[in-house]
TrEMBL record:
<dbReference type="GO" id="GO:0006508">
    <property type="term" value="P:proteolysis"/>
</dbReference>
<keyword id="KW-0732">Signal</keyword>
<comment type="similarity">
    <text>Belongs to the peptidase A1 family.</text>
</comment>
<dbReference type="InterPro" id="IPR032861">
    <property type="entry name" value="TAXi_N"/>
</dbReference>
<dbReference type="InterPro" id="IPR021109">
    <property type="entry name" value="Peptidase_aspartic_dom_sf"/>
</dbReference>
<dbReference type="InterPro" id="IPR033121">
    <property type="entry name" value="PEPTIDASE_A1"/>
</dbReference>
<protein>
    <recommendedName>
        <fullName>Peptidase A1 domain-containing protein</fullName>
    </recommendedName>
</protein>
<dbReference type="InterPro" id="IPR032799">
    <property type="entry name" value="TAXi_C"/>
</dbReference>
<dbReference type="Pfam" id="PF14543">
    <property type="entry name" value="TAXi_N"/>
</dbReference>
<dbReference type="GO" id="GO:0004190">
    <property type="term" value="F:aspartic-type endopeptidase activity"/>
</dbReference>
<feature type="domain" description="Peptidase A1">
    <location>
        <begin position="46"/>
        <end position="429"/>
    </location>
</feature>
<dbReference type="Pfam" id="PF14541">
    <property type="entry name" value="TAXi_C"/>
</dbReference>
<dbReference type="InterPro" id="IPR001461">
    <property type="entry name" value="Aspartic_peptidase_A1"/>
</dbReference>
<feature type="signal peptide">
    <location>
        <begin position="1"/>
        <end position="22"/>
    </location>
</feature>
Length: 445
């Protein structure tokens, strides 16, 4: 995946007027590290490209916002002179939270993914809903960055900044099933020690914060940015809405070690509003059960559409249908469960889509409201004979949903989300409501 011209133009504009492209080995400070992200048209997955190994090669990875670590297939064509397995009992192994260790069953000579007496972990594919054990390893990783010289020319350079020792997991290639074509693994951005944001912060001496701006356009790129916010936001762009990141003491991964907490991003939804009216729901479902980790609200990039526990969904659906009563309901199109027929021209006259809002726990025990633009909850199916349909982009998550509300890719597209792992908060702003950011694809492609 090449760095598109408009992405280059924007990133270079915020630093200086001139640029040069170069590679550079490890660098002690970078004001900006970034990964271009594109949306795969077939799977609806968000795919980022990093560079890894020695010599560096580009690797496409599906983005998992709540993933514990970087994992990728090491069975096929993994060639690197800088690959190192993480020994059992070593400091990196202990800090990773591993409770597993490979014995002496690996072949001689060893290969990437199978070394004797090596720390092991449990990589998980949340799309396939499958996990396995995998060797924990370290290798060189590189991302794009922008630096500005201090000489009289004030030249901005686009460089590929690399660092050694980034931990990742090496499962077998069967774990790649259901991932986008050409993808070699997953990029886990979770809260923990082995999550990519924390590893990059340690390696490049960055603040432990990152931001995402995902494009809903499969023809244009969004971006993931690591480092200080003022380094990459447009000059007038300020985030003023924040909500705390909540801890779930029980892992929500498909497989995990005993006692392992969740590394996913949970936020506190206090109320759901439709046209300002409160949706009547059981508030107990909005809280995280500290014993079993059930309940609450999380944000996910591996779920294309939001889900709600059945009773929440039914109440929300009822209020939404009531608010849009003049529009006839149509036979739903998979995967949607509620669709509306817009084929009658009279229906379109004066049509106003109800406003959906999330009242969130704010800072200092106050509340803050996240008003979702229509594009974040209404979808137009792309299959044949569905051009006159408009469908609700939330689905029924079931009566026994592990997480009561999941905000999926559709809900967070075209939103600037900043995750501050030190202050434990998430800043948010819709680019549709921004004076500077027209869309993620326009500004970051």
């Amino acid at each position: 995946m090449k760095i598109p011209q408009l992405l280059l133009c924007f990133l270079l504009f915020i630093c200086s007027s001139n640029y040069a492209i170069a590679k550079k080995k490890s660098h002690k400070h970078h004001p900006l590290l970034f990964l271009p992200v594109f949306k795969d048209e077939i799977t609806q997955q968000y795919v980022a490209q990093i560079y890894q190994r020695t010599p560096l090669v580009p690797v496409n990875l599906t983005v998992d916002l709540g993933g514990r670590f970087l994992w990728m297939d090491c069975e096929n064509d993994y060639i690197s002179s800088s690959y190192k397995n993480v020994p059992c009992g070593s400091r990196p192994c202990k800090l990773s939270g591993s409770q597993g260790c490979y014995g002496s069953s690996c072949p001689v000579p060893p290969r990437p993914g199978c070394n004797n007496y090596t720390c092991s972990h449990i990589p998980y594919n949340p799309i396939k809903r499958s996990s396995t054990d995998g060797e924990l390893a370290q290798d060189v990783v590189a991302l794009w960055s922008i630096t500005t010289t201090t000489n009289r020319n004030n030249v901005s350079k686009m460089i590929l900044s690399s660092t050694s020792g980034v931990m990742f997991n090496c499962p077998g290639d069967f774990l790649l099933e259901k991932l986008a074509n050409g993808v070699k693994g997953m990029a886990g951005l979770g809260i923990g020690y082995t999550g990519l944001p924390s590893q990059l912060a340690r390696a490049f001496h960055l603040p432990r914060k990152f931001a995402i701006c995902l494009s809903g356009n499969t023809k244009s790129n969004g971006v993931i940015l690591f480092g200080e916010r003022r380094s990459y936001y447009a000059s007038n762009e300020v985030l003023t809405s924040y909500t705390p990141l909540l801890k779930n003491p029980v892992s929500t991964a498909g497989a995990y070690f005993p006692g392992e907490p969740s590394v996913e991003y949970f936020i506190g939804v206090e109320k759901i509003l439709v046209n300002g009216k409160i949706v009547p729901i059981d508030n107990k479902l909005l809280a995280i059960n500290k014993t079993n980790g059930v309940g609450g609200t999380k944000i996910s990039t591996v779920v294309p559409y939001g889900t709600m526990e059945s009773s929440i969904y039914k109440a929300f659906k009822y209020e939404f249908v009531k608010a849009i009563a003049k529009v006839p309901i149509a036979k739903p199109v998979t995967p949607f469960e509620l669709c509306f027929n817009l084929s009658n021209s009279d229906t379109l006259k004066g049509l106003v889509i109800p406003q959906v809002s999330l009242v969130l726990l704010g800072e200092h025990n106050n509340s803050t409201t996240w008003d979702l633009p229509m594009n974040n909850f209404m979808a137009s199916p792309t299959i044949n004979d569905s051009s006159d349909l408009l469908c609700l982009g939330f689905l029924d998550g079931g009566e026994n949903a592990e997480t009561s509300i999941v905000l999926g890719g559709m809900q967070i597209e075209e939103n600037l989300l900043e995750f501050d792992l030190v202050k434990k908060r998430m800043g948010f702003k819709s680019v549709y409501m921004s004076s500077d950011l027209v869309s993620c694809s326009n500004k970051f492609r």
